[in-house]
Amino acid sequence: MQPAPDLTMFFGRFHPLFVHLPIGLLVFAIFMELLLFWKPRESFAKTIPLVWMAAAIGSILSATAGYFLSLGGGYEEATLNLHKISGITIAIISTCCYL
């Protein structure tokens, strides 16, 4: 396997940083959806799509950075594949929730 380019690895190393923001935003969006269901407010209805959009963008950035990081090697194949599939799934789900 060829070594990953330095620029790719540079962005890949941001994966741990990127991964936590979408998780928090997804939890916040779900919480706001539940709160909106329980106690409807116009301000929540306007804010929720923005939170879903930020979570979707953050998830896509995180999955991309994770892919770049995986190019560097040194990870167990089965664990890496499960992690990769999970990241892509979360990015797709959060994007669908936004749309």
Structure description:
- This protein has 99 residues and is mainly α.
- It is 83% helix and 0% strand.
- The chain has helices at residues 6-12, 15-38, 42-70, 77-98.
- Helix 1 packs across helix 3 (42-70) and helix 3 (42-70) packs antiparallel against helix 4 (77-98).
- It starts with 5 loop residues before the first helix and ends with a helix.
- 20% of the residues are buried.
- The model has no long low-confidence stretch (mean pLDDT 84).
Q: Rg from C-alpha positions?
A: 16 Å
Class per helix and strand makeup? mainly alpha
Q: List the helices and strands in order.
A: HHHH
Instruction: Give the rounded overall mean pLDDT.
Output: 84
User: Distance N terminus to C terminus?
Assistant: 38 Å
Low-pLDDT windows of residues: none
- The amount of helix comes to over 70%
Q: Sheet with the most strands? A: none
Q: List how many beta strands DSSP finds.
A: 0
Tally of separate helices: 4
Shape: elongated
Q: What fraction strand?
A: under 5%
